[in-house]
Amino acid sequence: MSQGQDLWLFGYGSLIWRPDFAHRERRPASIDGWTRRFWQGSTDHRGVPEAPGRVVTLVPEPGARCHGVAYRVAPEVAAQVFAELDHRERGGYLRVELPLRLARDPAAGPDPQIVAARMYLATADNPNYLGPAPLPTIAAQILHSRGPSGPNLEYLLRLAESLREQDADDEHVFALEREVLRLRAP
What we know:
Structural class: alpha+beta
CATH superfamily: Gamma-glutamyl cyclotransferase-like
Largest sheet: 5 strands, mixed, barrel
CATH architecture: Roll
Mean pLDDT: 94
Number of strands: 7
Distance between the termini: 51 Å
Low-confidence stretches: none
Helix content: 25-40%
Number of domains: 1
Oligomer: single chain
CATH class: Alpha Beta
Strand content: 35-45%
Radius of gyration: 16 Å
Number of helices: 4
Shape: globular
């Protein structure tokens, strides 16, 4: 950890609506060249080992932009914050550092600010990675999965709602939400 310097953390899944850690600032942000996908299995939060849920990870995609939230973390609490997040994201996620585009701050000028930010990424080589599947298959799995943190459906619906609050478009999330609601309809 950098001594004496605030650190940025990018949240693109449940960290958008449930940060559960001390931070100085919360700002809309995005990361270029990555897209959000429900390709990571969750056996510790939104599912269980015998019936994993599905949560998001980032997948490289040229020209893509993934919207989320950036948190500015003070250096005096950074070690504790990241130790807690390492535990929270232990189900296959690695902590990486990538460039992040913060939403424009009118006080800072007309251009968006690019900063180095830490984020959690689940790659295809972790044991909980589920990978791509047809949208109806992912939707059915989300609809029927539940874990210690609650129903997998809640995760999807809260993510979609949070993205709408930011006016952020994410066709994968919104298409999955539509499919889940279609499957759930009487």
